[in-house]
Amino acid sequence: MTRIISLRWINVAQLTLAGLLCIGVDLATAQSVNQSGSDRGLSDWLVRINRASERRSYIGTFVVSSADQLASSRIWHVCDGQVQMERVDALSGMPKTTIRRDQEVLTLLPGKLEGVVQNREALAIFPNILADSGPELERYYAFRHLRGERVAGYLTDLLHLNPRDELRFGYRIWSERESGLVVKLQIIGREGRVLEQTVFSELQLDAPVSLQQLQRMMANTQGYRIERPQVHKTTLESEGWQVKANVPGFRPLNCYGRQLEVASDNRLLTQCIFTDGLAPVSLFLENFDPRRHVKEGLYVSGATHGLTRRIASGGQAWWLTLVGEVPTQTLVALASSLSRR
Amino acid sequence: MQQEKNTEELISALVDGELQADEFEQAFALLDAHPQSKSSWHAYHVAGDVLRNSQLANSAARDMAFMTSLTSRLKSEQEQHRLAVVSLNISIAPVRSANWAFFNHRRVAGLAAIAIVATLAWQLGFNPQGADNFPQLADSSEQAQPLASKLIRDPRLDEFLAAHQQLGGASALQLPVGFIRNATLDQPSR
Amino acid sequence: MSASASHPLSSESPDGLLVERTLAGDNSAFDLLVMKYQRRIHRLIARMVRDTDLIDDIAQETFIRAYRALHQFRGDAQFYTWLYRIAVNTSKKFLHDLKRDPLVLTPVHESDGEKDETFEAGIEPSSDETPETVIAARQIAQAVDAGLAALPEDQRQALILREIEGLSYEEIATLMNSPVGTVRSRIFRAREAISAKLKPLLEQKTGKRW
Lengths: 341, 190, 210
Hints:
The complex is a heterotrimer of chains A (about 350), B (about 190) and C (about 210).
Chain A: H1 27-34, H2 42-55, E1 58-66, E2 69-79, E3 84-90, E4 97-101, E5 104-109, E6 114-119, H3 122-125, H4 130-140, E7 141-151, E8 154-163, E9 170-176, E10 182-188, E11 194-205, H5 211-219, E12 225-227, E13 231-234, E14 241-243, E15 251-259, E16 268-275, E17 280-287, E18 297-301, E19 304-313, E20 316-324, H6 328-336, E21 338-340
Parallel strand pairs in A: 6-12
Antiparallel strand pairs in A: 1-2, 1-11, 2-3, 3-4, 4-5, 5-6, 7-8, 8-9, 9-10, 10-11, 13-15, 14-21, 15-16, 16-17, 17-20, 18-19, 19-20
Helix pairs in contact in A: 1-2, 2-4
Chain B: H1 2-15, H2 24-33, H3 35-52, H4 56-60, H5 63-84, E1 100-103, H6 140-143, E2 149-152, H7 155-167, H8 174-185
Antiparallel strand pairs in B: 1-2
Helix pairs in contact in B: 1-2, 1-3, 2-3
Chain C: H1 14-23, H2 28-48, H3 52-69, H4 79-100, H5 102-105, H6 131-149, H7 153-163, H8 169-176, H9 180-202
């Protein structure tokens, strides 16, 4: 029996890892399956769309687009009640195959015979807090349920999450009528502009996907050079930082010490995840290096915004990078809320 | 005295790169005419440096001595230079690449009005079947502020973006669609 | 002589503008750049070079070279980054040249009975300090700290947001919920107050000013 934890306080250590993604949350979800669309509140919908990917298998062609960019992939998805697996093959750009088994993710680059194995903790957290998170999210987003048009041939329900302030973007979610599977998603900026869209241009629900075959694929990486980058948990406090005041809705979730090639001197940098429940933001801190850290600035790429800045305190200096699917001013606010202890 | 104070405010704004277009000549005229203004420029920078790094106070103590000896050396250089300068056609235009829209955030007036411009590297020849699934995406040219932004390629930032997509998927949408979205977008930069 | 009417880089930071003006013939504009960066360049060189006299020489040479090469500076990089590289290259060249000079091979500072500050372990690269400059440096740091602490809160906050957080006036105005003009004025008054304490300390012994 898994615990329901409010978005207010999350202790990942208390979550058990085994089968988290496939175990039903509780009675509330059983109810949501039987309710009609108009009766469901936001929490129910969130649980529904998450559970849908737990219960059905599918194969589809997936397209992500924003101004001037189009990326697509082929998706296989299966869950047998214990384990959930997904395979994502790039149809655009460099050949790449990603295979996920619950939180474990293997990324293979066939062109280079290289691969990376990672444990993605974030995938474990949310399914367990969804039943509680509706009210919290509704403080920051106005929720509406509408009838959706056909997507990839399927009837849909359309969920609108309109931001109540300027610190976040809006979301439009098309959920397949029968299963709840998300078949289309739009991130909406100011004046209703679509910043990014993800959609299944083609979808086969309940397609026969062999879990065993995916397991075998994931295990067989012969000929590949596989990296398992070390990531350790840390906190802002232990690194000497504090968050002076929370940006409304956004909470620090987890922090990781990790190595990225771009970090100065290849030393560890710290990556802290912030979220308001829908919009994730990553905050990176590394030692300041005047040779690498040249220009402070703001960046935009589709729905993703970035900010870089130098922070100095007590004779030391750091380089701060913020990246997230949020407006620039949210990144500025997060940057300003950070200070040394 | 009041007027003097106001004009010294120009020096302070010049330090921050926040002068209005019509104030530049005033500021430079002030600097040329009054040694006092130059010492303000110096003191403001010493204050800023020491605030950020108290060890720079060590160097500050010797600033003027250094400046004196440098000036005499510079004078002979400047004389030679003056003779060489006619009209130099200096190109200080930004180098155009592709990909990220970059804004120096001191230039952006109004944080909310950021234009949505171009994006990550690779273009595709992929033609989707369901054309009606593709809406009119935010047209970059409508909102682009050509003077304020430039398009750049930044492999450093791409790597941070990848790290964000990999570990930062803290969203109720991650499992339904976020993970596959990130996996689709996440491209190695090399 | 006035600079050109258009300032493509001017509101990013004044550096580009000062470079433009120098190239257009206004040499005092270069002085302003020196005054802005001399401390950081000095400190940078001191990290690479221990010899007292050499640091000053290299710093001078750095600025001279920058002046000579100014027309090569392209506005798409930061001026300080460009200057930084010149400082590093100049230091390397000096050190390299010194190694080949037989006179330098005999250690200069090993005189009997004379305490050599340069080789004291754990001391920050300010090996060029005399007792006078140590005191002066301390007074300068104290003047800045005291000046900051004595400021009214809104001025202090505006100055910190500008100097330490590196925010633009616009961003500070948003955060402090004030008009940009007010922010500009607060920062100016904060600087004025701190400078009043600083200026006497920055003057040369002869009382000579700019």
